[in-house]
Design a protein that fits this description.
- The longest helix has 19 residues.
- The termini are far apart.
- The chain contains nine helices and four strands.
- By secondary structure, the chain is α/β, with parallel strands linked by helices.
- It has two domains: 109 residues, TIM Barrel (Alpha-Beta Barrel); 77 residues, Orthogonal Bundle (Non-ribosomal Peptide Synthetase Peptidyl Carrier Protein, Chain A).
- α3 crosses α4 and α5 packs across α6.
- It has a four-stranded parallel beta sheet with strand order 1-2-3-4, with helices on one face.
């Protein structure tokens, strides 16, 4: 890849395949030697998948390796602005990569950037912002996969977009049992009407 393009090539990988092969330090050196421009390390092995706590100590060892000159980004378990700042400072990485915490909550990026710059916590997204993002996600899914599959694959995301709204279960049930794009749009309108005026902490409870 490095030889075939003039664009910078970056890599994201894990600590190793399993606990007996946590060889990320060697892998990082070899990747740098072949010319990658940055490396992101997820603090779990392949066998772990997403179970257990990410081991950022080994990510820090990669960053502290005197041979490593490329930027090192850490990934794993970052789900708040406070944790992003804490881990960046504690483990000395050049940056943080966000994965699962952004699913259904893309606002985490602006919240982290604001917190790093000011030390202040941003207000959570409004209900209107949540519904707008959910609608756009649904439309993008339908445009990409077609109406049937796009609607089906979107069902896994509604819980994250609507998390924290009190008594949301009935609306969520309607969303995941409806096969019509027009009906889904109507349900979004019903949610907006039903929860009109609910903002702030009620949306992230």
């Amino acid at each position: 890849m490095v030889r075939s393009t003039k664009l910078p090539v970056t890599v994201k990988t894990r600590l190793g395949w399993d606990d007996s092969s946590r060889n990320i330090e060697e892998v990082a050196e070899r990747l740098q030697d072949v010319g990658i421009q940055a490396l992101t390390v997820h603090g779990r092995t392949r066998v772990q998948m997403y179970k257990g706590e990410a081991d950022w100590r080994l990510i820090a060892k990669v960053k502290e390796n005197p041979r490593i000159q490329i930027p090192i980004f850490g990934n794993g378990d970052i789900d708040s602005p406070q944790k992003a700042l804490e881990y960046k400072n504690r483990y000395g990485v050049d940056g943080i990569m966000i994965g699962r915490a952004a699913i259904g909550y893309p606002w985490i990026f602006r919240e982290i950037k604001h917190f790093l710059a000011t030390g202040e916590t941003l207000a959570p997204p409004t209900l209107a912002e949540r519904l707008d993002a959910c609608r756009r996600h649904l439309l993008g899914s339908v445009q990409w996969k077609g109406e049937k599959l796009g609607i089906l694959e979107m069902r896994r995301h509604y819980a994250n977009y609507l998390k924290g709204l009190p008594h949301i279960k009935d609306f969520r049930t309607r969303l995941v049992t409806t096969d019509s794009l027009q009906e889904l749009e109507a349900i979004f309108d019903d949610i907006a009407t039903h929860y009109a005026g609910i903002e702030g902490e009620a949306l992230v409870a």
